[in-house]
Amino acid sequence: KLNVGVDTVQHGVEGLTYLLTESSKLMISETDFQDSIHVLGFSDELNKLLLQLYLDNRKEIRSILGELTPKLPSYHNLEWRLDVQLASRSLRQQIKPAVTIKLHLNQHEDQTAQVLQTDPSTLLHLIQQLEQALGEMKTNHCRRIVRNMK
User: Fold this and answer.
1) Which of 50, 90, 95, 129 reaches 20 to 30 Å from 7, CA-CA?
2) What pLDDT score does 114 carry?
3) Which residue segment(s) compose the domain that 39 sits in?
4) Which part of the chain is the COMM domain (predicted)?
């Protein structure tokens, strides 16, 4: 009916979908949206229709995108205990420390608990890796990625 190829229609739909989802993710204002589509060279009437389509559907698009994100467990509480074995029948003078951690998590309104046990050197290595990851989050590259994910 349109007298155009299937690829042209498919690319048009994909482009429109991309434009609306990215604009909704970033919650850009009307003027920013108009500036973005003005560059595409469409007529003023089509630009107004696209703007109205964006304004009418951006909340719904954001809610759908929110539902598509994975629901990961979140932190609720942490309990820990340090156990030290000072001697055994065969070795009277030994020190064998162990750290036991009980991690309480919330997932879909349910609380779960994970019990972990490790030695202090592995725990120190884990702490260093987490601190390094937190330091990475402060870089401009990661900030840009996180900003675009919201």
Assistant:
1) 50
2) 94
3) 4-66
4) 74-141
> Do 104 and 135 sit in the same domain of this protein?
no
Q: What is the pTM of this model?
A: 0.49
Q: How many domains does the chain have?
A: 3
Measured distance CA(95)–CA(57) in Å, rounded: 64
Closest CA to 115 of 81, 86, 83: 81
Q: Cα-atom radius of gyration of the chain, to the nearest Å?
A: 27
Distances (CA, A) of 23 to 10, 26, 39, 90: 20, 5, 15, 69
Are 91 and 52 members of one domain? Answer: no
